[in-house]
Amino acid sequence: DAGITQSPRHKVTETGTPVTLRCHQTENHRYMYWYRQDPGHGLRLIHYSYGVKDTDKGEVSDGYSVSRSKTEDFLLTLESATSSQTSVYFCAISELPWGEQYFGPGTRLTVT
Amino acid sequence: AQSVSQHNHHVILSEAASLELGCNYSYGGTVNLFWYVQYPGQHLQLLLKYFSGDPLVKGIKGFEAEFIKSKFSFNLRKPSVQWSDTAEYFCAVNADNNAGNMLTFGGGTRLMVKP
Predict the structure, then answer these.
(1) Chain B interface, Cβ < 8 Å to A
(2) Beta-bridge partner residues of B31
(3) How many CB atoms lie within 10 A of CB A79?
(4) B106 vs chain A: nearest CA distance in angstroms?
């Protein structure tokens, strides 16, 4: 398995609080992604990064921000969590553009 | 933007039965195609991929998929399933109009294999 860790693995938080999820890779891959997984929707891209300090929006970016200050770390922040952001969040990495992506173990986030 | 459809949401099979899961995408240009599997409680793992060349690709664990460009399809097959194949399967597409290497996923197919 690719060297990808996510923290925390589980989190319960209250509506309106800020939340930051961390993705850490040891593969030195250029591309990193944040997806959310919801039943019936597969995975949907939130944001992605194509290099340090280079990020862009995905399909469902509203309410989320990201930062990448080092190659190995990609942070996803929910500025003010809402119940609709209850989901499982997966980080992925890719070495090449248009190549396969490798996924982390996921973070289960519950917003009450 | 491209979309991916997996028409079978739930499939139940007995061990040794043959499997075919459908995947169709909506984009007329060049695509890279993937099948991922997610075992219960685990992350997604790559089963197989198609970039170019032979449209019949073989993956891990005895799975294969056939790319039929004229039908915009990339169906997953396995001749004889095992109980351990119980999982959710996702088809994904990456199109050449996609500057960010974004994968578009289908909604997934839950496979249950009865022993």
Answers:
(1) 4, 6, 9, 32, 34, 36, 42-46, 49, 90, 92, 94, 96, 98, 100-103, 105-108
(2) B95
(3) 12
(4) 6
Closest CA to B25 of B115, B108, B106, B102: B106
| Nearest in space to A4 (alpha carbons), one of A102, A96, A99 | A102
Token reading at B10: 């739930």
Question: Which residues of chain A lie closer than 8 angstroms to B100, CB-CB?
Answer: 48, 50, 56, 58
Q: Could you report the per-residue pLDDT of A82-99, keeping only the tens digit for each?
A: 999 999 999 999 988 778
What are the structure tokens assigned to B32, written together?
């890279």
Tokens of A98: 């248009």
The more confidently predicted of residues B28 and B33 is B33
* Residue B100 to residue A48, Cβ atoms within 8 A: yes
CB pairs under 8 A between A and B: 59
Longest dimension (CA), chain A: 38
Cα(B108)–Cα(A57) distance, rounded to whole angstroms?
23
Q: What is the dihedral of CA B41, B57, B106, A57, to 10 degrees?
A: 90
